[in-house]
Specification:
Layout: H1 13-19, E1 27-30, E2 49-54, E3 72-78, E4 94-96, E5 102-104, E6 112-113, E7 124-125, E8 138-151, E9 154-160, E10 169-175, H2 178-181, E11 200-202, H3 204-231, H4 238-249, H5 267-274, H6 282-291, E12 307-311, E13 314-320, E14 326-333
Parallel strand pairs: 11-14
Antiparallel strand pairs: 1-2, 1-10, 2-9, 3-8, 3-10, 4-5, 6-7, 8-9, 12-13, 13-14
Amino acid sequence: MSGVNVSEDDSIKDCASGDYHHAPIIGYHRAPLSQKFGAPRQPNLVALTSVIEMLAPYDTPAAFVGLEAFSHIWLSWQFHHNYINKNGHANKASHASKNGHINKVDSSFRAQVRPPRLGGNEKIGVFASRSMYRPSGLGLSVVKLERVEVVEGRVLLIISGADMIDGTPIIDIKPYVAYSDAVDDAESGFAPTAPTLLDVTMTESAHEQFMTLINVEQVNIKQSDNANNKNNDTNSGTENAALLFIDSMNSMNSVSSTNSINPLNSRDGLVHKVQKQLLESDIDSIKALIAQDPRPAYRRTEISTLFVMRYKSVDVSFQLIESGQLQIMAVVEVNETL
């Protein structure tokens, strides 16, 4: 049992009586998206690269022997932002354990939800939906396994196509088996096909803002690299190797499951950096995310209303224009101190 001390609160006693099942968190998802807005509503809609950072003792390489023979994996995970209010604090109906994990122990059951696919107005049963507001608070996704990395003796899974945000707790991992998991004649109810994508454009000023931020980061990296070289010649090339790894993660064609070179020579910090470092190729990823139209269904006809999606270290503002396209208007660096 992980993350719950039953003696801390009488309301949690029911959890130990069989009404609740506690599963350990085996890892965390590290991704460019830190907020729900902008995240794909289903897996494999956007080929966005991200990382599963495994936790001890589940990060031992022995536990992943044979996994690279599978192209895709199932991930069981928790909708952890369901329990966070707009001020960034845990809701009153949640209980925070010693490790900061939020456990929902006193929530009201929502029998029906309004799927965005139905315009946000029509209600259906929660068990007929893939809504995040579920009794268990658990999600299930099939994603592409790009490769397994071993860093400092611990496992990182490089994946793509996830519909999870940064910091998502991972509960379980299983291989995807096509002969049993794929159902060719399945019926998909109110969602028989993938959602229609919108055209996305970017203003010249927004593109200039993005490129300026990239150039500033590259200068900072070079300065840091030069400082490291002066302090310790044995660290030469560390930052360059990290950047090469970041670039390879965002270029699907360069990924190889048999790659024996491990440029991630420092686990602490580098995983975080991989998900914050801006690249020119991120423009395509940002456009692909916005093309899914993350706006609330009831606001999709609003012209010239700005919406903001946080991606890595920037806030991306976009709006619907008269032509029916979504247009990126500005890219602003996030002030982490606020």
